[in-house]
Amino acid sequence: MTESNFHAYRTHHCAALNAADAGSAVRLSGWLHRKRDHGGVLFVDLRDHYGITQLVVASGSPHLAVLDGLRLESVVTIDGEVVARDAAAVNPNLATGGIEVRVRGVTVQSAAAELPMPVAADTDYPEDVRLKYRFLDLRRERLHRNIMLRSGVIASLRQRMTAQGFTEFQTPILTASSPEGARDFLVPSRMHPGKFYALPQAPQMFKQLLMVAGFDRYFQIAPCFRDEDARADRSPGEFYQLDFEMSFVTQEDVFDAIEPVLAGVFREFAGWAKETPWAVTEGRFPRIPYAESLLKYGNDKPDLRNPLVIADVSAHFRTSGFGLFGKIVGGGGVVRAIPAPGTADRSRKFFDDMNEWARSEGHAGLGYVTRKGGEFGGPIAKNHGEAGMLALYDALGLGPDDGCFFAAGKELPAARLAGFARTRVGEQLGLVEQGAYRFCWIVDFPMFEADEETGKIDFSHNPFSMPQGEMAALEQMNPLDILAFQYDIVCNGIELSSGAIRNHRPEIMYKAFEIAGYTKEQVDRDFAGMINAFKYGAPPHGGSAPGVDRIVMLLADEPNIREVVLFPMNQKAEDLMMNAPSVVTEKQLRELSIALKLPPKAG
Q1: What is the pLDDT of residues 182-198, one digit of tens each?
Q2: Neighbours of 515 (CB within 10 A)
Q3: Cβ–Cβ under 8 Å, residues 247 and 539
Q4: Which residues contact 394 (CB under 8 A, 6 or more apart)?
Q5: Ramachandran angles phi, psi of 555, nearest 5°
Q6: Can you give the pTM of this predicted structure?
Q7: Selection from 449, 533, 518, 520 nearest residue 483 by Cα
Q8: H or E stretch including 143?
Q9: In the chain, at which end, N or C, are there fewer CB atoms within 10 A of the end residue's CB?
Q10: How far apart are CA 446 and CA 461, in angstroms?
Q11: C-alpha to C-alpha distances, 194 to 187, 364, 589, nearest whole angstrom
Q12: Nearest Cα to 207, choosing from 589, 518, 541, 498?
């Protein structure tokens, strides 16, 4: 093929050529990635979506001045000849590292202005610049790779869900506001002045109605919208989840359906941009009751890569010589122990620093005991006594060179502090397993909780969950003792989703809401679509919705979810690239029958 018969822009992409193509005439198009002048010979890295090809322009070539004069990130089309590199010049880290293209012709497609941020260097850059020029940020290798990972994960999820017998449906984006959950994003209706749609926080009601409609297994990669603050593992405004629902299933049926999907995706992409593929939980994911998780791990999102297990040692201090702990336990509080194995070689400063860290986080402090060669140290050990310490260490399974930290106080604050301390001790001592994805289910969540100040009973999690024991439990048990068929799936300490077996029987739903202070009329008004549908025959059903963004964040080993989202907002929920949110015109407001009443400006 002659150059006159070539495609207008390329015969190959920039990762396609190798030594077998030596001598061939080719046409490439892409961005100028790097340039290096070696004694009058110009070497240029040309980059496209697929990879990089090195161009070479000899001294005296009429094309040297053109390429040398262009800024990096200019877009060009190159005609040239493939040349095999000398053995010493081969780049084994590049797919095209065995060749280069000798330039015979250059067409400038688009000259780049001076760059506000580098593309070739994958260095840290201010977030506001990265977000404003996200189209440049996305050209950088790491971020480009992350977005391709995201695309691959979504494609794999779809294929695996279909193979499990699920069918993909699309639920509405414009819907009704919900009185439960986070703040809605509201959309004014032009045709119905004074009324508003809401963007869905999740397709919760619609997917349940699909089950009522007789569709057996539903899923979608669902966009969700919540007006809430940003966190490292949560985008402000919008996110995507693998939403699914199933009919005629128990809790274990749900687990059995989704475990192979998640484990399969994680195994498929466990080696993405990593030297060695990470290990993934084998077999059934552990099932951990909520109360057990709070006790052993200090939270309901345990990182099972950390081998440390918290223990309740309150009974050991009821009659202890260590008066502070005795007083706490006597007043209804608890003492939780966090092992610190193999710390005989650690100085006293390690333990004191942990105590100072706890105080800096707003806690009263973190007690500790040191032990070296069987000898106990520290005020707690001194006052608790040798016999008492030996009994406590025997109960904990600790040895002669293991230390121990203690969190004491009211149960929930003590559990939280113990959980934070477990994480910090595991990291400080290098105990956390590296290169692994460790899954678990948290089950048996409480159905209700009481407000600490008012004592008012309210739903603990999803109000549409089926209580364990159904109507009998609601009628006969203390509401705070009722458990729900609710569950979270957790990986490496990150919650991927919440789910539940749904409450599909109207009489049970009315009773559950009654306990939480709702009248029948309120339920009929606020949840009309669902409660009315259930009156016409609803199957037992359940599901969940693992977060796509968080799945990709884990697989990419990124600390922040913005690194795996195409066009994220900043922490103030602003799109710096598109200048959103923005002011609208008076004409637009009049069409929507809206008048603004803005808060007074500060200062």
Answers
A1: 889 999 999 999 999 99
A2: 17
A3: yes
A4: none
A5: -65, -35
A6: 0.93
A7: 449
A8: helix 141-163
A9: C
A10: 8
A11: 11, 51, 12
A12: 541
